[in-house]
Amino acid sequence: MMRTCVDQLLALPHIDAPSLKGEVHYLAGRLEQLRMQRTITNEAYLDAGAIQGAIELVANMIDMGVPQTEIQEHLRSTLRRADRIETKHPGLNWAVESGRAS
User: What's the pTM?
Assistant: First the structure.
């Protein structure tokens, strides 16, 4: 699931808290929408929420002054977790990303 969003965050030259918080806001709204439309299961919603929470945690770490190297490591760990969730819930990444404005 959110593999695409985590990839994009890792590609930033400098990862900042506002970018991460914006992503958390998007994910919260999009996941709720997908769950309400029954596009994703409740289980997929809960699993995806773990990624959303991990991104929010990293944003808070940035606010506390944690070095970028550690931030990137946490995001890489989140990326691995997102891969496992996408394997468990195929199509979740597409469902989340299809809601973005072009």
Answer: 0.89
